[in-house]
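yo

u said u wanted the structure for the complex thing, so here. seqs first:
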Amino acid sequence: MKNTFGNSISLTLFGESHGEYIGAVLDGLAPGIEIDEDFIRSQLDLRRPAGKISTARREADDLRIVSGAFEGKTTGTPLTVLIPNTAQHSKDYSATRALARPGHADYTAYAKYHGFEDYRGGGHFSGRVTAALVAAGAILISALRNKGIYIGSHIKSCAGIRDRGFMDLSEDIERLNDLSFAVLDDAKGADMRAAIEAAAAEGDSVGGVLETAVIGMPAGVGEPWFDTAEGVISHALFSVPAVKGVQFGPAFEMVDGRGSDYNDSFYISDNEIKTVTNNNAGINGGITNGMPIVFSTAVKPTPSIFKEQATVDFMKGKDAKLSLKGRHDPAIIHRARVVVDSVTALAIADLLALRYGTDWLASL
Amino acid sequence: MKNTFGNSISLTLFGESHGEYIGAVLDGLAPGIEIDEDFIRSQLDLRRPAGKISTARREADDLRIVSGAFEGKTTGTPLTVLIPNTAQHSKDYSATRALARPGHADYTAYAKYHGFEDYRGGGHFSGRVTAALVAAGAILISALRNKGIYIGSHIKSCAGIRDRGFMDLSEDIERLNDLSFAVLDDAKGADMRAAIEAAAAEGDSVGGVLETAVIGMPAGVGEPWFDTAEGVISHALFSVPAVKGVQFGPAFEMVDGRGSDYNDSFYISDNEIKTVTNNNAGINGGITNGMPIVFSTAVKPTPSIFKEQATVDFMKGKDAKLSLKGRHDPAIIHRARVVVDSVTALAIADLLALRYGTDWLASL
Amino acid sequence: MKNTFGNSISLTLFGESHGEYIGAVLDGLAPGIEIDEDFIRSQLDLRRPAGKISTARREADDLRIVSGAFEGKTTGTPLTVLIPNTAQHSKDYSATRALARPGHADYTAYAKYHGFEDYRGGGHFSGRVTAALVAAGAILISALRNKGIYIGSHIKSCAGIRDRGFMDLSEDIERLNDLSFAVLDDAKGADMRAAIEAAAAEGDSVGGVLETAVIGMPAGVGEPWFDTAEGVISHALFSVPAVKGVQFGPAFEMVDGRGSDYNDSFYISDNEIKTVTNNNAGINGGITNGMPIVFSTAVKPTPSIFKEQATVDFMKGKDAKLSLKGRHDPAIIHRARVVVDSVTALAIADLLALRYGTDWLASL
Amino acid sequence: MKNTFGNSISLTLFGESHGEYIGAVLDGLAPGIEIDEDFIRSQLDLRRPAGKISTARREADDLRIVSGAFEGKTTGTPLTVLIPNTAQHSKDYSATRALARPGHADYTAYAKYHGFEDYRGGGHFSGRVTAALVAAGAILISALRNKGIYIGSHIKSCAGIRDRGFMDLSEDIERLNDLSFAVLDDAKGADMRAAIEAAAAEGDSVGGVLETAVIGMPAGVGEPWFDTAEGVISHALFSVPAVKGVQFGPAFEMVDGRGSDYNDSFYISDNEIKTVTNNNAGINGGITNGMPIVFSTAVKPTPSIFKEQATVDFMKGKDAKLSLKGRHDPAIIHRARVVVDSVTALAIADLLALRYGTDWLASL
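structre next:
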């Protein structure tokens, strides 16, 4: 349903880059979930641009939870997060508003909203809106941890440089969650940053792949048709700006192999059913099997580049040239990470709530 | 909502491999859509196993539309398709029911349904259920064609063999829709079939990638957050059995490049706004831009193989060995194609109906 | 979402009076619910016309459960009920199709479906469709009983004759569920039947009020806004043909009194919180308080009467006269009773599943 | 879905009486709808307590639209209304928090939220939350007017005193919309006010019935099953605090009559199909027939009274006495009126959008 995601637990996003607030309403939360504002802020910090490899726009992200919380815990009623917009540039957007930035939503917003859209700074399409998503997601991430479910993502590749793969998932996730540039191999991370800076120096941008793992999921969650675990998670992931692909396990690699190469054999370990390999990424037939859920998200190179580009003036219906100015990210993959973790938390919390009821998330 | 997909136009799937019927209810259809039963049957034929490269189970797919149609047209009320199951083997499944087939949903069904599932022939997880999906999808595919929207898929790769890419989309789609083994390059198709037969001869299986194009979509359809065109389409695609990955345009390739390589420049052609390239696959910011929607779907190698596999007896909680017998597909990619087209039709019809209303699909 | 009701547990209805089948798909059911086909049939018998006070059309209601059941229990996958239509008259409806029966949906169907509707015998608007609803509802009613939740309705009034009110709810409900003409006071029931026959003799029809009680509901179910217990139940009730009003407790009587007359005082009884009176009908602020849910449903006089009526030919756009012939009910209130029980079961099962999860309904 | 209503157009409500803000997110709005802040404020004024017959709590209702609007018009993205809470009394609620006010949600909130609810001033159950609903509803009411659809309600009865019925709907609606105490007969209104003051003087409260008319609805809107026009409207109405009953037309009166008394004959007038009477309240078979939609809403006597009442301390599990102090409404029916209009606008806008698409509301 449009800007709302989820059935039993649902998130509604609102706000424009140059409006008074961006925000989110999280409904269906169990009462009694501890709200760790420090953790929310630390998640917002991970999303916030920082250093040379990010946009110069800096927001304080002054978070306010204005409903659904009481004495530090969720009440069970809709929880609303507001984040004021404070660092808007007062420049005049109207001069360039009809120059569609290639790879951006300027033209599609115009096609959809007939010119009534708030075009300043990307409007409702601005990555800024993800700050509200991250704040709401942080509450779910904490709650899921209390239930033994942990989510972590690393930059699997950026500008063609590959991080090492996951090894000990529990340790890797714990480590990643403290990093502002989430790589498992520090040396590769340094290479990636250098590549981002090099692209930035040329007025260009880079993309990459995020790999995410979810551990601790019980078996038996998801539906055989339509609300498959993969379908629900991917639906959420494609809301993360610049995401254009999602694969579970090594999907686009498995396609060239045989069943005997990729079937995950089951075995018993300590009275639990496990699989030797995890090519199916913790999901069989759309339903979790208790193994880690592992997926990769393709983040295209940031479309905002400084090089001159051919485009159109969509109001005049004429070809045009565009040279972007201002503040832009040469890469967003390191910032997108925490957004991916947030929507993942939302998707799996909703799947869990359908089966176990909304109270489950706060139960002991 | 579980086994239902879609808001304005919705499809509910039901049935088990060994039940009396599998079926689908399609609701939200505009009244007055012509029902071309020949076309439905031809779509079912494309899905039905045939020849050496498919399972030996053959169903007549004796289609019955038992509601929502009158005098050859949709009435606007829920349209129900029933397909009787007739070719079930009467073998005793109970002996092997607790031996989880690796890569299959036997164990996850047990975890979800506590042992009450109909385990015969894969039950509700059987690929057989897709016959109902294809029948319902055929009605949407025809209706979309009448609105100038065409969908087509080819086997982009199978067993490591690559088909040529799309060239003239309009021609390619038209041609593909008549092929039972949908490749653009016949020689590559012959190689793929040979590779499938070779795998079959070894009791093994292969996978592949389907590439789908949708032409004629108006600009301005989809939502910025959550119900992005990508999110809605991918949600539907992951219901196609064995699909483990989805990418729009060359997503997993773009990640290694730069913004300047992949941004799609706009230009004016005959007073229409187009893009020079189409790396964004017809979608910017979650919303269609009028260019073709193009995506690839990774289909893992069929998990049913005849080689002996290690597994568990999930009721006894013991390790076990499994040697499958019976009828199994060494590849399903050629059959999955029409299922992908069907869910694509469902996803885009729903997106269109949200914006234009449910009557639109039958309007002139 | 149109012909589907419910979120966690959902029911989709389909079928036309003169189609091959009417049916229902019930999704979100817990696995392991016993399916008591005898009980389903007995519920269908209660809905089926019988005797002088009902239509002469008689259907065998040959029920088939074609999915979602295995070895006498629900599997947890969508359960589909089919009921074949067998007693259609083969008369030619086309001559009178454009003569809108006053009080019926003929004209509104035409306005909505542009003339493509199956107009024979009321099509999708036929009360016949409720047979599928009753069959599906019966499964929920049984399951709720196993959880200690009982639903029962009586004909509170018919043709101006009042039944006695509920006294011992538990006893009254048990007794009502076996009656084909559900009154608590047999003498009043005899009067009502006589009044129905009198109206029938004049080619006319009568209406009435059903009063329903639900006992055993836990406190804490329902939502403060929108998905209030009252809102969800009433939404479902207005699908019962001829229902035009719903009140919880003595709502339309309370309006003339004062707060001090109708506030329900709380007290403790055996460590449980109860109310002395139950004017709020078991619901405060949209949420159940553990007391019985009690509501009344106004069923208008059946619109199909034999007296000549003024109407229009909506295809010619001309005034016309209509004299109905054929089989029609002079009253449907006694038959509507079991339909009301069925939609009530659906509404409360869905509310319960949201809070407690879908598995709850079959848990011990 | 809990605190969200609507499919194509949806409203999410949030906030607690003593939180920082109450608010609403309205999604699915067409772009380009004029936002008349004066009208929104005048609607808020109608809801706001005033004079002797309302609570002494006065809020400035300082409205802020923080997203979804640009240059005075809707953008088509989620529109968020915030209203700050400013007039909270700083009294200590904790002493009496466990004393369940009879007729209120204190105990059910506790049962649902396990004691984590914000109990101050009714929390999320406070009638205050309806201010946000009214603000959002005002935008829909204006937009519907531009499409020729008008909504108006009057106090049909209060404290047993009856207003005159609707006569010229168009004139009556126009007149009502300017009145703060919405009666058609001023003398009856004076009697009602006197009755409210009399009840207030005794520390007691009164209830009443609101009658609402919607004119200008096109024929053909609504669904035959479940999403009937009546079902959708009633679902929304039961969110209005103190509403316990809804009837369309004279439903609870028709039940005692015959079909020949209440069937609405059709006739042609100026090439339009109309009905002579309108007992079916503009709806046949769940679908609008183009006649005015007319319904009555039963508002129970306000539960907050000053007379001593028996109750329980639900945390100690003990019987107790309660004497309310502070600010309370002796009647809310005059304030509920604009809330009823608002939810009515929401329900019918959503029904219209499903059929005609979301853009329709702003189209010319």
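Residues 4-362 of chain A form a domain with the Chorismate synthase, AroC fold fold (CATH 3.60.150.10). The mean pLDDT of chain A is 94.
cya
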